[in-house]
Amino acid sequence: MATVKTWLDSWPVYRQLTGADPFGRGAAARSKATDATVSRTATADRVVKTVCPFCAVGCAQNVYVKDEQIVQIEGDPDSPINRGRLCPKGSATKQLVTSPTRVTTVRYRRPYGTEWEDLDLDTAMEMIADRVLAAREKGWQVEDGGKRVNRTMGIASLGGATLDNEENYLMKKLYSAMGAIQIENQARI
Amino acid sequence: MPGLGASFGRGGATNYLEDLANSDCIVIEGSNMAECHPVGFQWVSEAKARGAKIVHIDPRFTRTSAIADLHVPLRMGTDIAFLGGLIKYVLDNELYFKDYVVAYTNAAALVSEDFVDTEDFDGLFSGFDPEKSQYDETSWSYDPGEQDSATEHPGEAASQEDEEDSPEVQASDRGQTHGSGGPTIPSKPHRDETLQHPRTVFQVLKRHFARYTPEMVSEVCGIEPEVFEQVAQWVTANSNRDRTTAWVYSVGWTQHSVGAQYIRTCSILQLLLGNIGRPGGGIMALRGHASIQGSTDVPTLFNLLPGYLPMPHAAQHSSLEEYVADAAGKAGFWGNKRAYMTSLLKAWWGDAATAENDFAFDYIPKINGDHSSYRTIADMIEGKVSGYFLVGENPSVGHPNGRMNRFGLANLDWLVVRDLQMIESATFWQQGPEHETGELAPETIGTEVFFMPAATHVEKEGTFTQTQRVLQWRHKAVEPPNDARSDLWFYYHLGRILRERLKDSTDPRDRPLLDLTWDYPVHGETQDPDAAAVLREINGVGPDGRALSSYLEMKDDGSTSGGCWIYCGVYADEVNQAARRKPAKEMGVAGSEWGWAWPLNRRMLYNRASADPEGRPWSERKAYVWWDEEAGEWTGKDVPDFEKTKRPDYVPPEGARAQDALAGTDPFVMQGDGKGWLYAPAGLVDGPLPTHYEPVESVVENALYSIQANPTVERIPGPWNRENPSRSEVFPFQVTTYRLTEHHTAGGMSRTLPYLSELQPEFFVEVSPELARLRGLSNGEYATLVSSRTAIEAKVLVTERMRPIRLRGGQVVHQIGMPYHWSYAGISTGDSANDLLGIALDSNTHIQEDKVSTADIVPGRRPRGPELLEFVESYRRRAGVESGRVGVNGRDPVDADAGEGSRL
Question: Which DSSP string do the residues of B90-155 spell out, in sequence order?
Fold first, then answer.
């Protein structure tokens, strides 16, 4: 008899008709599989506070990390700005990080080349430094129109407005020190 | 931002998103907030639930319109006419907030006798030079009152004023330098508190907007007079002591050839209505990227240093003394410019910056013209630039005129792209529309390309400054994979390598690099620099070696340092204030302990104006900040945006300077006269008052003046940037571009994600049923759009959301809408809307007019291969436009050096 009872209890319609959940929107709809399911947010090793990188509302996010991998990103209910809410883009930020098409190694295209090549990071940094010094030299102006300018017109830069303040600060500082002035940002666009 | 900066003294949104819930009426104009800032829109919904009226003014019916009480479908590019009509309505019916206007705005100031208005000059202000397409602004100034006795260097200041008007200084975009500090004025003006003198700003304003009648608004904007009347009633009925109206805008305003003046018109209206500095009021500028506000505060912009200090200009600033001369003796907090600049120089060059060497002022390179993004692209095509860094930016898709941008990239010696995905701007040498037409090929492109993988927002730490000036610290959740690194890492190590290479150099040119303070602590295997140390440097440090807590502590003697004076306080008490995360439920309305807002954690700007001149709240319902006589200080729900203990009845003594020269009734503390500017005697290059001009590409004749478009508009001519003639039968339809909720700008962060690509899988254009009939377009089928730049194809969405406008003369204006997120890379692909657009710029900001242009639309797919070039060329011929044909890599066809990188 007990077996029959258990068997009947496992049938949602039976629970719906006999229990306290006639519309089947709560306990009646639960299955063993449901009970065994645990949300990724519950088993994460830690929760890290961040901010959505898309529009400028500045929605606070909770990042759930397990085994040094991001398992979920959700809105932070503590924030006075977004009160835990995220839009479709904000809700998709985990894919932004874990995207399989993300390029995570340096790629190099030589002049007139027809294919990408691999390059290690340190070599790339040294090569870029070489080119910065050469371009700086080639475009250097002591004066322009009879006025002292002390600058290079050989180097230009355009940053996106998802750069951190600290990044923008180091960029402006370094570019100014090397004499580069054609330094721009999405903020102009 | 010059629109806000020249009106109020700072270029930031005046209020915060949550405060929209306190509004009695919200007008959203130049923004599809529900679609583009959906989570911020919850505060509009909250206001609506509390009974507020919501008005959406936009050519398209959108997700925002669907929730509004009223949608006003005005014709594209006519917002100044609409807002000008509201200003006239307010003045004619005496619905302005008189006590506020007299006390807190420059309504009573007298304008120079030499000023001639557009109303008397058929669309031009006095001082126009048709050859240079620029104004001499001298005649726009205030009628000078008593000369400021504290001006220490009157001669120098005067010569600065003169140089401000030189064409090359104008071209350097001074407008943007008013992001935190209004434009400088030589002295406080004569005033007539009765507002009756014919040269008071108030009377000038009345005359200027006299012709912006409801009938004229109806004619220009293509809306019914009753609709205008309804908006006017709601806005004015909800703007008084007891009630406030907020205005919300975004790039639907800024991306116009008169963009800064759109914002100025709104500023005038909101000042007249007494809505600035008050809860539920203000102008909410919605920025489009996580740290757009931050990217101008701590700018990577050619004309700015951190904190809106201008980049030194070759014609004006050969010494620190000259650089600060315009602030010497001035009223307002801008009077301390020397302390801010000296602290910046100390932050950058440390012990090498001394009083003897002018604090290394000469180490900063000088500008002398327009060095902005689009000008630089044209320079690239001409072979004038060797190397280019693209850091999280995809101009091939995100900028108007993609073809021109790609030609620029093809003429470089080298290009560094730092991004998460293989974006179009990194693959331009291999793939793209010009490869199909035969205009570009790998064999002719000498550009060396380095793709450097970047870290995502959760793989690094640092701050974003969001739309309401709040800095929020992000903690690092995980390490970036493989070679991926933060931009902080990249620039720190690039600087380290450059300094190592040059360490034995004796060339004085290398001193700025070698003397640079560049010793940030590094962490972990990848030697990641410490972002908190950078933020602390930005905050600034005092003589005792401790973090400063306010920019008022900054000194001009070299004893303090600080990389961005407006961010001073973010590291107060040696605490990273941006990392604060006190739950909303445990805080007051202003959310003062969540992150940190500039300036000095003040969440609502100019909030002194929420109290009357005596310091009492205008009403109990709208109480926010007020004077507490017993305590002898300003208090309330927010940090007062005012000196805490300055009495409301304070009158500046003779000879006072900087903040001491501002009275207890001057809430606009960054302005030289402490007032909100109805009339801008300085700060904008295209006029002290807004004037309706048609867009550069318009199908309609300007009904108000014989001057068709903004006379100062900046053009970058070349075969790769041809302009559609106005009122051309060949390009008979108006086009606007916009975003969708499910995608982000140029698509690198959204077309690459499966969820988002599934939600919005392909490029489409929206047309009205009337236009579909006129051109034989079918829903779901392809159409081709053509301009003088190129032709693109998209799926057609026939919808009543797009409404043709019938003008009184019988002319019907058809409008086309297209989202601009697509291109050939990623999961969801399509032609790029921006390829259709040309580049014509607001002369204040060098921002392009891409919210309105013209095109033709025909059924079917576009021609393939070289046939596309002939197809577009035939349109140019018919429209009388010069040829758009180019030689190798977009160079001149007879250019022998083409295909060999830059000429440098």
Answer: HHHTT-S-HHHHHHHBSTTBBBPTT---GGGTTT--TTEETTTTEE-GGGGSB-B-S--TT-S-HH
How far B802 CA sits from the closest chain A CA (Å)?
25
Q: Where are the beta strands (DSSP E) in B480-541?
A: 522-523, 528-529
Structure tokens at B673: 């006269």
Q: Are residues A116 and A130 in the same domain?
A: yes
Q: Identify whether residues A168 and A136 lie together within a single domain.
A: yes
Percent of chain A with pLDDT over 70: 97
Q: Residue A70 sits in a domain of what CATH number?
A: 2.20.25.90
Residues 98-127 of A with CB under 8 A from B: 99, 101-114, 116, 119-121, 124-127
Residues A22 and A46 grouped into a single domain: no
For residue B11, what are its two tokens? 């270029």
Cβ of A14 under 8 Å from any chain B Cβ? no
Q: A119 pLDDT exceeds 60?
A: yes
* Tally of structural domains, chain A: 3
Q: How far is CA B866 from the centre of its chain?
A: 38
DSSP B313: B
Q: Would you state the structure tokens that stand for residue B900, as one six-digit string? A: 């060999």
Q: What is the CA radius of gyration of chain B?
A: 27
B477 in a structural domain? no
The pLDDT of residue B864 is: 96
Answer yes or no: is B741 within a domain: yes
**Residues A128 and A153 reside in one and the same domain:** yes
Please check whether residues A8 and A22 belong to one and the same domain.
yes
Question: Residue B827: in which H helix or E strand, if any?
Answer: none
The answer, yes or no, to whether residue B153 has pLDDT greater than 70, is no
Pairwise CA distance, residues B486 & B492, whole Å: 10
**pLDDT > 90 fraction of chain B, expressed in percent and rounded:** 90
What pLDDT was estimated at residue A23? Answer: 87
Number of domains in chain B: 1
**Are A115 and A152 contained in the same domain?**
yes
Predicted complex ipTM:
0.96
Taking the CA of residue B630 and the nearest CA in chain A, the distance in Å comes to: 32
pLDDT grade, residue B154 (50/70/90)?
very low
Using the Cβ of A172 and the Cβ atoms of chain B, whether some distance falls under 8 Å is answered with yes
Task: Note whether A155 and A114 are same-domain residues.
Answer: yes
Would B335 be classed as within a structural domain?
A: no
Q: Is A59 on the interface with B (CB under 8 A)?
A: yes
Q: What is the pLDDT of residues B647-677, one digit of tens each?
A: 999 999 988 888 999 999 999 999 989 999 9
* pLDDT tens, position by position, B319-354: 999 999 988 767 778 889 999 999 999 999 999 999
What is the structure's pLDDT at B176? 57
Mean pLDDT (whole number) for B371-387: 97
Domain that holds residue B879: 714-887
Does A9 lie at the interface with B, CB-CB under 8 angstroms? no
Range of the domain at A127: 107-188
Q: Say yes or no: A116 and A171 in one domain.
A: yes
Average pLDDT of chain B?
A: 94
The CATH number covering residue B798 comes to 2.40.40.20
